[in-house]
């Protein structure tokens, strides 16, 4: 992979030239990026439709619109964020001033996934560029049409010495991970995340891992069932269920379970018609490999809605599975598809224990109007982020950090958090030379009592 080594050398030279350190130049590039995306929206729609039949509306809401909001936030705030932060200085450093400088790491590698191929490639790129780094983006080879569009758009804005898109399969990712970067940002599965972390450890490279997991959705007996149903059906089946923060399984209180299931069935039909296969608002599974993995998790004897599959189209209908127990195969791995298993519960304390006994999820959703229980979920359960009485929408707030914990990842980004993720915090004290207090210098005889009065 000599081409990769050559590209890295070009990017290192470009970074050392100081061009990326100029805030005005960073802002100029971000504005150009937004302009180019706007001019080529149709190409993005077409690519996502070809890759897994995603509707224009979903593409804009979940891929393009959020990117615009992120760029707008950076354009508005980058100059302020990039200013040195003045912090307090202890009397022991009289006369001095203390600052925190945000400086770019240098060369950044971003490895993005296939499920939101445009959004999850461009969002971290915005933060990396805004922070002043050079960047290599490795998009997923699975969504080949979207990857090509990304490469074309980026080439309209950036020289390869600044930002480069490298396409290819696993062998390309392996070749990139064998090289030394100053920061690595990965979005994908836990299995691959461990490989990335191991490669980063070889050079002690800092890394952000945005992974996934089985995100629980809890509907308590006092929840607004009608609203809860709509928001859960939307959050679960958006993008054909191929969302890292989608509700993975449903915990519903016994007292409202039967009624709530009827709400779910009605909302599935209301959103996607009686035959979702003919509804253009419902995407397909990305490929046959993932289709077969998901269908193996479906116990047709427990299906109470949906369950229809078509391998030729990689189609799986929005599916509800009832009478699920924790030991079932579907509860042993992240589903990442349009299948929602339902587990009944009666004791609130018990479900907190059951969730905490399992790997930390990327998201959690709790539907209830009880403030005390809401607070207990937030305080007592470990998860990356989530919502009370909604699903997914925390992801769309650029003012909130997005990231996982434990098995669901490390580090966070979006908005200011992206800028901080891709910036090194450099601590500096600036001292005056017109005075030099002799207290710290030897000999120390007779000085201990004085220093104790100052440092106590």
From TrEMBL:
Keyword set includes tRNA processing: no
Sequence ranges assigned to domain Aldehyde dehydrogenase in this UniProt record: 20-428
Listed CDD domains: ALDH_YwdH-P39616
Catalytic center residues: 210
UniProt-listed InterPro entries: Ald_DH/histidinol_DH (IPR016161), Ald_DH_C (IPR016163), Ald_DH_CS_CYS (IPR016160), Ald_DH_CS_GLU (IPR029510), Ald_DH_N (IPR016162), Aldehyde_DH_dom (IPR015590), Aldehyde_DH_NAD(P) (IPR012394)
Pfam families registered for this protein in UniProt: Aldedh
Organism: Splendidivirga corallicola
Keyword Transcription: no
Name of protein: Aldehyde dehydrogenase
Family stated for the protein in its record: Belongs to the aldehyde dehydrogenase family.
Stretches of the chain forming a coiled coil according to its record: 23-50
Keywords: Coiled coil, Oxidoreductase
């Amino acid at each position: 992979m000599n081409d990769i080594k050559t590209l890295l050398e070009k990017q290192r030279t470009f970074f050392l030239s100081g061009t990326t350190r100029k805030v005005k130049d960073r802002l100029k590039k971000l504005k150009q990026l937004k302009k180019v995306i706007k001019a080529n929206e149709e190409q993005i729609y077409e690519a996502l439709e070809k890759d897994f039949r995603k509707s224009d509306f979903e593409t804009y809401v979940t891929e393009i619109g959020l990117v615009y909001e992120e760029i707008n936030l950076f354009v508005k705030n980058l100059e302020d964020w990039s200013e040195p932060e003045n912090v307090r200085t202890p009397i022991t450093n009289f006369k001095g001033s203390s600052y925190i400088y945000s400086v770019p790491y240098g060369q950044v590698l971003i490895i993005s996934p296939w499920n939101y191929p445009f959004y999850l490639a461009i969002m971290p790129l915005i933060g990396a560029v805004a922070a002043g780094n050079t960047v290599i983006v490795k998009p997923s080879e699975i969504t080949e049409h979207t990857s090509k569009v990304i490469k074309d758009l980026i080439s309209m804005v950036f020289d390869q010495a600044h930002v480069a898109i490298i396409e290819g399969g696993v062998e390309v990712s392996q070749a990139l991970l064998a090289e030394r970067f100053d920061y690595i940002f990965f979005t994908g599965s836990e299995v691959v995340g461990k490989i990335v972390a191991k490669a980063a450890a070889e050079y002690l490279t800092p890394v952000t891992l945005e992974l996934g997991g089985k995100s629980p959705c809890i509907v308590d007996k006092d929840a607004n069932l009608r609203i809860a149903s709509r928001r859960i059906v939307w959050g679960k089946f958006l993008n054909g269920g191929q969302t890292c923060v989608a509700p993975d399984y449903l915990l519903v209180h016994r007292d409202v379970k039967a009624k709530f299931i009827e709400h779910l069935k009605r909302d599935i039909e209301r959103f996607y018609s009686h035959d979702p296969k003919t509804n253009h608002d419902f995407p397909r599974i990305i490929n046959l490999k993932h289709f077969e993995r998901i269908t193996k998790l479906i116990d047709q004897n427990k299906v109470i809605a949906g369950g229809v599959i078509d391998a030729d189209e990689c189609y799986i209908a929005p599916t509800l599975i009832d009478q699920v127990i924790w030991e079932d195969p579907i509860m042993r791995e992240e589903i990442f598809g349009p299948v929602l298993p339902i587990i009944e519960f009666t004791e609130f304390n018990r479900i907190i224990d059951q969730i905490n006994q399992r790997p930390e999820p990327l998201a959690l959703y709790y539907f209830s109007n009880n403030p005390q229980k809401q607070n207990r979920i937030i305080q007592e359960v470990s998860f990356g982020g989530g919502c009370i009485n909604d699903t997914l929408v925390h992801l769309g707030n650029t003012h909130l950090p997005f990231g996982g914990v434990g098995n669901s990842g490390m580090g966070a980004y979006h908005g200011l958090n992206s800028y901080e993720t891709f910036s090194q915090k450099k601590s500096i004290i600036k001292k005056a030379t017109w005075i030099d207090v002799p207290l710290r210098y030897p000999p120390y005889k007779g000085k201990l009592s004085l220093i104790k009065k100052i440092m106590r």
